[in-house]
Amino acid sequence: MTMVVGLTGGIGSGKTTVANLFAQYGIDLIDADVIAREVVAPGSEGLIAIELKLGADILLTDGQLNRSKLRELIFSQPRLKSWLDELLHPLIRQRMLTKIDNSQSAYCLLVIPLMVENNLQSLAHRLLVVDVEESVQIERTLQRDLVSEEQVKNILAAQASRKERNAAADDIISNNGDSSALPDKVAQLHHHYLELSQRYQ
């Protein structure tokens, strides 16, 4: 059995940067966002079900899912969002579990942005939270995504609070300042996880 470290954090916290630092040690990354795209790839069970439900005009000309159109539909039809969640969440969960089973590294990193919100920390042996102050989240997301401050605040409101996330964490990496401190923090945790992972060999 492979030890699973769950990695999460709010928008703009630096989850991807931290995940990529772990990957440099040869640690397998299992990223829920990547899997969410895979389960609606052309020819997939997920996309076939969506096309049957919503018609061929939910597809782009190259056969890919028209994500912006789907987002608009979900936004105006809460029932459709529930249907989509019921379709995709089991597919995503199953694929995550398969990837965990197939992981070859000493431990694997399960990256789920809404892990605490969706109560998915049960999939991991430990939970690592990348923590930042809300003001830093807002500033970074505005710079990165070129969206309005109101939109960023709406996203934050829909996510777990800092307090909730940190209360669920086994380990916390603070990323408020300069990211140059991150490699050392990740190195320390990596060695700690290597020691812990021996229990699961």
Automatic annotation (TrEMBL):
The entry marks the following residues as binding ATP, namely 12-17
Pathway assignment reads: Cofactor biosynthesis; coenzyme A biosynthesis; CoA from (R)-pantothenate: step 5/5
The first-level EC class reads transferase
Show the Pfam families listed in the entry. CoaE
Query: InterPro entries attached here?
Result: Depp_CoAkinase (IPR001977), P-loop_NTPase (IPR027417)
Which UniProt keywords are listed?
Answer: ATP-binding, Coenzyme A biosynthesis, Cytoplasm, Kinase, Nucleotide-binding, Transferase
EC assignment: the record states 2.7.1.24
Q: Which domain of life is it from?
A: Bacteria
PROSITE patterns, A to Z: DPCK
Family recorded in the similarity comment:
Belongs to the CoaE family.
Q: What is this protein called?
A: Dephospho-CoA kinase
Protein's organism: Photobacterium sanguinicancri
Q: Which gene encodes it?
A: coaE
